Amino acid sequence: MDYLQGLNPSQRAAVEQTDGPVMIVAGAGSGKTRVITYRVAHLIQKGIDPFNILVLTFTNKAAKEMRERIMKVVGNEAKNIWMGTFHSVFAKILRVEAHHIGYPANFTIYDTDDSKSLIRSILKEMQLDDKLYNANFVYNRISAAKNNLISAAEYQKNAQIQAEDQSGGRGNLGQIYQTYSQRCYKAGAMDFDDLLFKTNVLLNQHPEVLYKYQTKFKYLMVDEYQDTNFSQYLIVKRLAAINENICVVGDDAQSIYAFRGANIQNILNFEKDYPDLKVFKLEQNYRSTQNIVNAANSIISNNKNQLKKNVFSENETGDKIKVVRAFSDNEEGKMVAENILQDRSLQSLRFKDFAILYRTNAQSRAMEEALRKLNIPYKIYGGTSFYQRKEIKDLIAYFRLTFNPNDEEALKRVINYPRRGIGDTSVERIFIAADQHQKSIWEVITTPQQYLDGRTAAVVYPFGSLIQSFQVLAKNNSAYDTALHIAQHSGILKDLYEDKSVEGLNRYENIQELLNGIKEFSEREDIAEKGLDVFMQDIALLTNDDNDKNPNADTVSLMTIHSSKGLEFPQVFIVGLEENLFPSQLALNSRTELEEERRLFYVAITRAEKKLTLSYATSRYRWGTLNNCEPSRFIDEIDPRYLALDFSAPTASKSSGDDVFGKARTAWSQPQSQDIFTKPKPKVVPKTTSILPKAHQPSAGFAPSDTSNLQVGMEVEHERFGFGKVINLEGNKPDIKATIFFKELGQKQLLLKFAKLRIV
Ligand code: ATP
Ligand code: MG
């Protein structure tokens, strides 16, 4: 039993308690996942057949890693363990058992896009207002019902639900749900939620099938139990009912999927369901330095709703958590990228020792760009690369069509997106006509009355004109103006704007991000050709080389905090710590939502082993205008004892530090009184008197002026650095360097031809 040596006494006790119900609710990094891993190895060592073990993990990646570790102890037998996510495991079971509930074994799994597209067709057929019955809204509503095991029939019978729908003016939701279910059934399709819902139906209606799996899975284990929904809870409960050899591990402080129906009650129910439950406490964090663990504890203590836990680390004290300020998201990316290169060489780290975590997918753009510039290899997890995202590809397809109207793939992608009545049949007719008349598709589209029947021609013609108008526009306008115009007039922006779900907002923000990138490209001073077509050449390269992924490659990991659950990295950067971004503006309406955001922050912090860096930008582009951002309240909530502010941003002058940031440094790193060390609560700095410096707001109507006659002694205003005085000029035209003393930032040297300056 050598392998049990790698466990502390509590962990070992939990591993050895193989029979009966077991629950471990413990803080991050305390070895919960390790306990499950060792437990499975231990069971197999004790002679349990791996075929009789079911382990439910949060991601398939987690399952894969766990299996590899178990293999090291028990060898190839580990291949036979049933291990995976709820969705993957029960899809596998449903393939075998689907006939019991009237589905073919080869049923289709509808992804979210398929589901929403089906909902849209139903809305159209039912002639319902698709603004009121926004497809995402309907999808989320159906999803929530399914995750709470409410069938379409029950939905329609439930007086409370009906009253709720009626009061929102959406009395037809029940009927839509009903039709949606029937259509999925007719199509032999299950959506994501069906994989759990139908499993429940199967286990509920077919006792013989339930019995089969109850006796098969003699031992059940669930990781990240805090994020299971009711549907998942019930599957586990049913399967464990005979043997009751069930072990769940989780951390209420890391529950971050309430918006998808995860229910913390599942932890509390567990105690009620199994009166002879054995509960194990794990308190020692093995992952992180003391500073990181203490900072995480101080953050989570701001949440009222939580189970009391004591988490400590006996690892080294470690570096303080670095807080870094940037002037923009691009600069933030640059600082992170430079930091990675620096630490990698100073501390002999690999790229895969670093992770960059963000709140929303859209933030990856600035990070990707900065990493690319420094040739740092990276991989985006839990999502497709920015330029691979559907909405980005859609908009880019319009750009492609604008510059090359013969691009068939781009045409197929957007001819009917956003929907404009050119259905599959019409598209087919266009292709046939082009073929018959030996004309290009573009020619058919621009002069459709010559080749198509009247009705089809009438719907196709405006699309051709639209693209032609984009072509004219692109000839005389900057990349940004062209791109924005296309985003607006193609209807993409409007379509995404109307989708108020979290995913919808993300997509909308992604487009905004793309436009921001194009705006910055338009404003670059180092290139002559700045048309959208030039920008596109770069994009084409980016989209091409992202396919071949090597899982063991030495790459920096980029991911949303949601997808970082359970993972760990020696160095972690949490970026975009700004009010309205993190915490998200969507989460500021109630304490419950804010507490979930705080748990998300707790998850993020606790991914770091040795070093943690938090960053924020004082300005961020939104819709082509620069907005000032305030640092996140979450930074203020960390006990200042564990923080080190670092404002030596590349654009901030180092020599100015004491004057400008002295106040902040004092407030953060040296408590005003001894009290702070003895107080159990971290010092919370009120929002209104935030001590973090703010970005310069350019004067109204700020426009750079001609600086060819700039003289020493003149006063100037810089777009970002604010007001200052020229103290030296050197070099020859066009490479004159100006040394300017900025009031807020101190001394900086700027290359005059690039500097955005105004003489005041
Ligand atoms: P999370 O809540 O983030 O999912 P967790 O509780 O599942 O965390 P693990 O991932 O199992 O924690 O463990 C965190 C790290 O600590 C891992 O690298 C693990 O190998 C290590 N670890 C856990 N227990 C021990 C131990 N007894 N001795 C040495 N290392 C340990
Ligand atoms: Mg874990």
Automatic annotation (TrEMBL):
Catalyzed reaction equations: ATP + H2O = ADP + phosphate + H(+); Couples ATP hydrolysis with the unwinding of duplex DNA by translocating in the 3'-5' direction
Binding, ATP: 26-33
Entry's family note: Belongs to the helicase family. UvrD subfamily.
UvrD-like helicase C-terminal domain residues: 290-566
Start and end residues of each UvrD-like helicase ATP-binding domain: 5-289
GO MF annotation, one: helicase activity
UniProt-listed InterPro entries: DExx_box_DNA_helicase_dom_sf, DNA_helicase_UvrD-like_C, DNA_helicase_UvrD/REP, P-loop_NTPase, UvrD-like_ATP-bd
Name by which UniProt lists this protein: DNA 3'-5' helicase
EC assignment: 5.6.2.4
